[in-house]
Design brief:
Layout lengths: L3 H6 L22 H15 L6 E5 L14 E4 L5 H11 L4 E7 H7 L1 H10 L4 E6 L34 H7 L4 E6 L3 H13 L4 E6 L11 H4 L4 H4 E4 L6 E2 L4 E6 L2 E6 L17 H7 L14 E8 L5 H16 L4 H6 L8
Parallel strand pairs: 1-2, 1-3, 3-4, 4-6, 5-6, 7-11
Antiparallel strand pairs: 5-11, 8-9, 9-10
Helix pairs in contact: 2-7, 3-5, 3-11, 4-5
Length: 345
């Protein structure tokens, strides 16, 4: 069995229970290897039948994912995976459906499709690999690249203001929003399990390192020396603490403020995370450490928001059942011909 280190370095052989016969062809060191490994581990632990699992992707490095798993799947077209998973869920609601996408695929050409998938609340698990770059097409800036990013397409630095993916998804009424990272495999597995258990659209943003075109983009959040000071792992019902428990965050009105617990600040005053509180979730998704600048807020990870509301396919299939009850089973020929016909002489 391979170790987590081997996975991150790109030397992994997928678990034979769910591995396809395809050679895994990401760049050595790509963060995608780790995400694939954690996904395989979760599938193994759950023990679902291969024929009951479907992975559908768009276009990009992340979207090669379906090739590497011995389940059903489809490598679809750029940005349109949400349309395909929506159709699949309507006709096969018993399946476990996963959508694999990247920041370019889902937030640029696929942005319109993504927000409607979220508002409709189709029961699908969306894994959004965010590496803040276009990797497959060789290093152009993406909708999440920070302002000033020097890339193949912005040699003088990007002037575009980037998307905050989870803030966008919260605005689209996403019913499950979470963030994880490729280099924290245990936490990533926990988030994947939570996402799969949710009934509705679960969206997990995963910070994924592109070591060829944007290496170290999230290093301040992943490396041991920096991680405690600049990351905040939220848990439902627990106070927001970081820096090995020496600092916390409280709300001054509705403004987050860092307090020093080592200097006498009280735990009783801290913000208690409630993943069912949509208003506070809107603040949390915008709690953004500007790449580790001194005194800035830590970057949160974990499940930010969960809401229980009916899925699109549940409501749609109920409507179909009601129509059949009232009008009987339809006839396609009659539907096409309509109630009024005429002959042109």
């Amino acid at each position: 069995m391979t170790t987590a280190t081997e996975v991150v370095q790109g030397n992994a052989t997928p678990h034979p229970g769910y591995a396809s016969d395809q050679e895994v062809r990401w760049c050595p060191g790509c963060g995608d290897y780790s995400i694939l490994k954690q996904m395989e581990t979760v599938l193994k632990e759950q023990g679902k039948a291969k024929e009951d699992i479907v992975f559908i992707s768009g276009i990009g490095c992340s979207s090669r994912f379906p090739y590497y798993l011995d389940t059903y799947g489809m490598h679809s077209i750029h940005g349109r995976a949400p349309a395909i998973v929506s159709g699949l869920r309507v006709i096969r609601p018993e399946l476990s459906v996963w959508m694999i996408t990247g920041d370019g695929d889902s937030l640029s050409i696929g942005g319109n499709h993504l927000i409607h998938l979220l508002r409709r609340n189709v029961d699908v698990n969306v894994l959004l690999f965010n590496n803040e770059i276009y990797g497959l097409t060789k290093g152009q800036y993406s909708p999440t690249s920070p302002e000033g990013s020097v890339t193949r397409s912005t040699p003088m630095g990007s002037v575009d203001h980037p998307f905050n993916p989870l803030a966008l998804c919260k605005g689209a009424d996403g019913s499950f929003l979470a963030r994880a990272m490729d280099r924290d495999p245990k936490h990533l597995r926990e988030i994947l399990v939570r996402a799969d258990a949710h009934r509705g659209t679960s969206l997990v943003e995963i910070y994924q390192n592109c070591n060829v075109f944007n290496d170290g983009a999230f290093e301040v959040f992943t490396e041991k020396a920096n991680k405690p000071q600049h990351t905040l792992f939220v848990e439902h019902g627990k106070p927001l603490v970081f820096a090995n428990g020496t600092k916390g965050i409280k709300l001054d009105g509705m403004t987050p403020v860092i307090v020093d617990l080592a200097e006498g600040a009280s735990m009783d005053d801290l913000w208690i995370h409630d993943e069912r509180d949509g208003f506070k979730a809107s603040i949390l998704v915008r709690l953004f450490d500007d790449q580790g600048h001194e005194g800035a807020m830590p970057r949160p990870f974990g499940v930010f928001f969960v809401s229980d509301r009916p899925t699109m396919e549940t409501k749609l299939n109920a409507q179909v059942a009601l129509a059949k009850e009232k009008k009987g089973v339809g006839n396609l020929d009659d539907l096409l011909s309509g109630g009024r016909t005429w002959t042109i002489g």
